[in-house]
């Protein structure tokens, strides 16, 4: 069973395979979640607008509006966490999902118990990472308002996903320290397991948003053989 805080959460499961939807629904309900089901992208987008789920489990391969497009549209609407389901084995396919804003992915065939653990981990992280009231982090022209979950650079709005925002907050709180991908996965995602390429993709996306030249970063630097380090510019 999940903790009470997560038990009240609403999860939207989107998959065109009836058997997959049913299995995922039963495991999530057994863990205490309220579950909505959708078999295609259009229905998923409608249910998201109507029910405002706390998390979406989203199949990559959907009829009509595909999973990547659904994920992109969800990101335009807000910060709902997304766990992508994919039957594709190539890393490039998984990376595309992360680049569209998915928080995590699970490759089919998957363990329903593992999926429930991923869902619980993401929701727990979202609900326990509340900032101190009025807390703002700054580094030169970079400003993160933790109450509003809003980032700006040189006065302009940064289009950050929820996970990108959390990762940048963590880096600003630990300047000058090198972290491995495994450490970042545990500290920011709350996972003791998972594909380290998740971290790599998010770091690349952050560099594209906060670095003047992402190919020559000055803030988010690679520490060869270790991972990444945030170097303040102030």
From TrEMBL:
A GO cellular component annotated for this chain's UniProt record is: cytosol
Q: Which residues carry this modification: 4-aspartylphosphate?
A: 59
Q: Which stretches are labeled DNA-binding? A: 134-232
Every copy of the Response regulatory domain together lies at 10-123
Q: Name one GO molecular function term.
A: phosphorelay response regulator activity
Give an example GO biological process. Answer: regulation of DNA-templated transcription
Q: Which controlled-vocabulary keywords does the entry list?
A: DNA-binding, Phosphoprotein, Transcription, Transcription regulation, Two-component regulatory system
Indicate the segments forming the OmpR/PhoB-type domain, all copies: 134-232
**SUPFAM superfamilies attached to this UniProt entry:** C-terminal effector domain of the bipartite response regulators (SSF46894), CheY-like (SSF52172)
Please give the CDD domains that the UniProt record associates with this protein. REC_OmpR, trans_reg_C
Pfam family example for this protein? Answer: Trans_reg_C
Q: Please give the name of this protein.
A: Two-component response regulator
